[in-house]
Specification:
It is built from four helices and seven strands, in the order E-E-E-E-H-E-H-H-E-E-H. A hairpin with a 5-residue loop joins strand 2 and strand 3. The protein is elongated. The chain is α+β, with helices and mostly antiparallel strands.
Length: 149
């Protein structure tokens, strides 16, 4: 499942959560509480930008490969231009993970294969949107900006 983004060496992402010990009074009379940090693995993995763009493109309607290439470029305002090899490699992985599925289009004159996002793919995209919103809000707060969009 971790094919869509960079992973840490152990093969998963996680969070670091504090574990608080019982407070004690030290020899000078101050209340001291020791905190240890532990790594907690989570299933939420950041998606690569091309995967986010592919899922976003397919969220509106099914598309075939060439239409996906063009829509990804449009959505990214020209920053992301996928090669056909990169696109079809991503499509293969997204199909394997059940995030997209093949879709038969009756109105095509040629034998083009179309794809559409699944409920699982929409859930992954929604999770990524929530993760990115949180990240942007945290950065905006640190920068002293009034409101992040």
């Amino acid at each position: 499942m971790g094919r869509h983004a960079g992973e840490c060496a152990a093969g998963f992402f996680g969070t670091v959560e504090p574990s608080f010990a019982q407070p004690v009074v030290d020899r000078t009379g101050f209340l001291v509480q020791h905190v240890t940090m532990r790594h907690v693995a989570t299933d939420v993995k950041p998606l690569s930008e091309p995967v986010v763009l592919i899922l976003t493109s397919l969220a509106s309607m099914p598309k075939h490969g060439y239409a996906l290439l063009k829509d990804v470029e449009l959505l990214s305002e020209g920053r992301v231009r996928l090669s056909t090899g990169t696109l079809y490699g991503a499509i293969r992985r997204l199909l394997e993970d059940g995030w997209i599925e093949r879709f038969e289009q009756q109105d095509t004159s040629r034998d083009k294969q179309a794809y559409r996002v699944t409920a699982k793919g929409k859930a992954q995209l929604n999770s990524e949107i929530a993760r990115l919103r949180h990240l942007v809000q945290a950065a905006a707060m640190r920068l002293g900006l009034k409101r992040a969009r």
